[in-house]
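Follow-up to my post from last week.
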Amino acid sequence: FCRQCSPAMLMRRGPEKNSIFGDCIQTVFLCLFPDKDIIYICPFSGALKGKVFITNYRLYFKSSDADSAVMLNVPLGVICRVEKMGGASSRGENSYGLDITCKDMRNLRFALKQEGHSRRDIFEILFRYAFPVSHGLSLFAYLSQEKYEENGWNIYKPMEEFRRQGLPNDKWRISFINKSYELCDTYPTVLAVPYKATEEDLRKVATFRSRGRIPVLSWIHRENQAVIARCSQPLVGMSGKRNKDDERYLDLVREANGTSKLIIYDARPNVNAVANKATGGGYEGDEYQNAELIFLDIHNIHVMRESLKKLKDIVYPNVEESHWLSSLESTHWLEHIKLVLSGAIQVADKVSSGNSVVVHCSDGWDRTAQLTSLAMLMLDSHYRTLRGFQVLLEKEWISFGHKFASRIGHGDKNHADQDRSPIFVQFIDCVWQMTKQFPTAFEFNERLLLTILDHLYSCRFGTFLYNCESARDQHEVRLKTVSLWSLVNSSNDIYLNPFYTPESGRVLYPVASMRHLELWVSYYIRWNPRIRQQVGLHVGVHNVMHASTLSAY
Amino acid sequence: MLSLGSGGGKSAKPSFVSYVTPEEINSEKDTPKEEKHPDLLPGEVVFCSASTVLKLTQDELSQRGTFGTLLCTNFRVSFISDEETGEETAPLFKNKLYGENDIPLSCVDNIYGGYEDKRKLVTGSQVKNKYPSKIIIHCKDLRVFQFALTFCKEEDAKRIFQGIVHHCLEPKSLKNIFAFSFCENTAFPGMLGNVCFTKLVHNMQQRTMMFDSAEDWAQDLKRTKGSCRLVTENANFGLSPNLPQYFIVPESVSEADMTLFQGKGLPIWCWSHHSGCALFKTSNLPLQQEDNVPQSYMEKMLTAVAHNYLYSVKTEDLSDTLPTVQDIQLSYSKFKQFFFIDSTTDFWVSDMKWFSSLDNCGWLDIIRSCLQKAMEVVECLEKENNNVLIMEDGGSDLCCVISSLAQLMLDSYYRTLQGFQSLVQKEWVAGGHNFLDRCNQLHLKDKENVSPVFLLFLECVWQLLQQYGPAFQFSETYLTVLSDSIHVPVFSTFLFNSQHHRASILRADSSHSQRGTLNCPTVWDWSVQFDCKAQQLFINPLYAEKPKLDKSMRRPHRPKHQRQLSLPSATFKTPPKKGFFKDETDSLKKILRVKRISRWMLSPDSPQPSSTSREFYEAWQRKPLDYHGLLLPCLDGPAVRIWMQRYLRWIQEVQIFGGGLVTVLSKVSDLLDEVQELQRQLDRHSSSLTSNHQRPRPRPISAETDSRLSVLLSSSFPFTTLKNNWSYKPAIPTGLLQSLMNSGNLADTEDDDQESLVRA
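User reply:
Got it. Predicted complex:
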């Protein structure tokens, strides 16, 4: 197939700095498409002549213009869609070429000469290697041979994390009922459940919870022993089925710290929860004694996807000039952020006042993960450290089965799949909003968040691959791929916030008002060279230190 | 209808003459002794008061509040709580002139009367014998007060309501402004009072130049290496009362030119670029179609400007492209309403449409267009090295905004605290901005001349500050306090329409008084308002101080003018000094002049330069950022923001407890302390090796190093600190879903494949 490939082009890179690509991924570079002349139609600098390389990891472009230093270095995993533009009869200048849509808020357009088969070749290579899963090929993470000082797979050990929280104790026990994913194939193997609930109880409850995702403990408050439990919706259905075991089980959750009324936060809008009854789902009704149900009105994955799409329309390639704020408002993106944050604030507020809560949405892997992890970030300063944050992601998102593969579509050519949704991006945005409001409370900086989002798509690391732990085990992710945390923890100083002031015991309540929420410009508009990256406060602190040393002399 | 302090309140006298001196009132007042008084300032007298007034907390629903006494003096409306405040910790950022429950009379923006469940704007004339159950006061510094009168005696309630309305809303004479009685009774040390900063600004002995002497002008001209002519003939306003006492004009302007149109049309020097070209401003000549005198005069003036450097001049009539002062007023009056929050419900309801509301009032667009215009002026000077003449009708509104913004962008001296104050003195105070009229210090009913032009300038400065923090020596807090000070009727800075106005008022006054000329403090006498500790918050700890090259060449002012950021010039490069073209000049002059003037006369503003100025910005942006060089603002949508500290500081719902930028600043201060402590230890160590002598170290710049404080910090620091009665409860948005309900049918689709669920 690959006519361009000759043995000579199989470049093997040692540990030395990779001179072409400017980083040092120690891997087998399969140079699939050697330096061809191409025109990159840059939305900011206009059409640029240059050379393009495509490897099994990335698309690389460098303009041959001496005075413009435009360079592209795009991991193929970022590509969402590749399309041909123009045909053999296209006449206009640069009207014949390729249009590439990326998952990270940008599009790339290349123009080619109509002669020869260069477009067909480049299209086929891109299509094949950007979507390896659709072509029966391995994701790049399985080919990478990067070596790091630290093994990121060791960052999260469920038992250690439970022990840190003071578990097990006399009210909560650790259950291994799911060790071979029999109870629930999208849950982790180790679960914390009420001490009084037997394994048999758990099995019974699992029949009444969507996909067997039973209520389990995510976090416990050290002083007041209030817990955040998470689960999926109860299978109430049209007929309004009841399940005594489920009712009793939730009462055990309540009882554990003597909470008088268990608060159940249903992340969905009320109407959607009602509508779910038609498909067998539903919500906890009055039959649940000593429980109160509160809807948090957060919309579903489809609404979020469309909202981000609208946002892209107003920021890429050019930032909407007239009525920017009204345009921003019409995307509703920040309004969704506000809803998610305000839901998490309510959860954190209840728990810190000693009241145990249960959080669920439909399946408990999208909105639920957002709410529990954000509430935990507000409540527990450990999660605001560089490593603690990694644990939080590993625990609440990765191990509890946020469907990364379906939401991101790693290596999948079906760009229009209805399962795609930027739920995790939205969560990271919420975290960013918190770091903006509390600039000294987080040990990590914005760069970590950007790095996480870059590698959410890149497929260079195994961290975000697959939908759940059982699938990861099956594909031996931990054995065959490198963890993103290996990269981060091997050079962690660049991810540290110089203003971090460790402080424990205080709950951080961000203000979920539009007055304080702002667009994350350095992520959503980062491709636009006009938007100057936020002037780093680091520069400021450097200056201060410098000035103070000077003045001391 | 109003009888001040006479106790009756029902007297049927015709409209009260308000032009009484405080002494007269003082003699009539009969306020009972047992009533509480604030610590009155020198010259302050109480007009009326009422006890058992309930000051309501912000949340309407709770109807909670504090009982106390409400007073109205010739300086403020003041509320004194009955509750024993005890020895609670003194607020860190205390204003010496007024406290948190005081409203200086000129700071009152609007008064509303609350009747049952509706409220009405009080315009003054409506006040008869009725009084509302609640007085709601919106302040110009965005505070909101609500006082319930339902528990006080009817007489008291009527009197205090009428008193407040009268003194806050009715027109008064300039002499009745508090500053005059205050200053007669106080001695000010003048600018020497600024001892707080001499410690902080340790690099050079800077002072604020007042530009009320020939020396200040000469110094600024010298500093920028300008080659224009200093005019001293107007020291006694002999040339024209419209002109400043001292000013600078192009060299070839004659004395006769200056008097021809009372100073109108005369190009006044603002600033010289290192290339030699300069910025001038002027007020438009009156339009007279019939005779040619103005036209030929204007030609002459343009030639004079062009003559300044390379016979080039660009003119810009600001009234053509910028909003009028009325537009500015209109937009701001819509904008400010968003920050007067009466209740929590109000807050969350308005949160839904927050962005579009902001957009619709256009305030940010006005800020953007001013910054844009200033950037175009900068481009002419910096890139094309053209002389620039900006003009507008009065020559003292948008000309002041644009010229001072351009200077801030070009000259890092003006980004120091003293430099900034000097700039305001030069362009605004000496430049004859009509502060008295624009700020409506006299509460005139005819609001045609009222417009927050100076505030608009501060807004623009804030935008630059938030984009390039380390480039500014002063802090956001400084700007906020400066914007508040406009409405503290004590400072001469904001009381007059021009230098001539000031001189005539003060001269007239001193002839009546035995004490000689009045000595009102200027706003720059910060110690009138704040102690040294509070003033430390005016300094930006993140300021990237310019590294000193050589200590020995210390001069009283900035030793060298900035040069490092000259962009490639499109036309000529270095200024060939006079005589170089001697022979060609005549023809060159003719060509250039004719071109410019014809353009000027025919189409005052032809091509919109936005696309070229975009290039200018981008070219600048590609270069490494130098905080001491040229600064250009980014004007894209997300970059122009709301001045959060000024506008949101009093709104409880948006306080980020334990958060906000201040946490960073306090961390930086801690780090600085640490560094200096280590340095001290090091010094002690090394000096103990040689001798026992120890050098004293300067105290670090510190927001507040008290560790207790970090718990109390909030995003509104230093204006509000967390108090015990404020709950730690988070603000939870209410009524969230309404605007999202029409998200289309996607909202109804459920997340995942539901068929499988049914099977489950």
